[in-house]
Design a protein that fits this description.
6 helices, mainly alpha, disordered C terminus, globular, single chain
Length: 159
């Protein structure tokens, strides 16, 4: 079942890159779906599985910006490992702690992308695109985590 979810997530990422990203952007602010999917995978799977999933998501996510592929792979794999270690070792199971970790991962990834692409107008880009993108992505991440818990809980209900 995890393999089916991973393949479906890869197709969702490819569909988002090709069609959805421009359609659902709000004044240029887009969702960082790669980081959202990687952090959710890091919350619910092991370290090796989350790292391989992050590498595959990074390859699909950076298919439009091929020059950023090594940076995407490194950053998303590092995010997956760090989130997995922090969430399992510190036993962070509450929704608030997971949203804080996801927000930090989104912010770090956004700052890294700004730094790599261009350092000109860093604070303008940070305030205009990255911080609203973090909030926009957190809303999607919250929806995915809550609905995932709801659907996972339906399978355990006995009547």
């Amino acid at each position: 079942m995890k393999l089916v979810l991973a393949v479906a997530s890869l197709f969702l990422m490819a569909f988002y890159n090709t069609l959805l990203s421009n359609m659902i952007s709000i004044y240029g602010v887009t969702i960082d779906l790669a980081v959202v999917l990687v952090t959710i995978a890091a919350f619910y799977s092991g370290e090796a599985g989350a790292t391989w999933f992050a590498i595959l998501i990074a390859i699909v996510a950076s298919s439009q910006r091929i020059e950023l592929m090594p940076w995407e792979i490194g950053s998303l794999a590092a995010i997956a490992v760090i989130i997995n270690i922090v969430s399992f070792r510190m036993n962070l199971d509450s929704l608030v702690s997971r949203m804080v970790l996801m927000g930090l991962a989104l912010l770090i990834h956004g700052v890294m992308v700004i730094t790599i692409i261009s350092f000109d107008d860093f604070y303008f880009v940070l305030l205009r695109f990255v911080l609203p993108g973090v909030i926009y992505s957190l809303v999607l991440g919250w929806i995915l985590i809550v609905t995932g818990k709801t659907f996972a809980g339906l399978g355990r209900v006995r009547m």
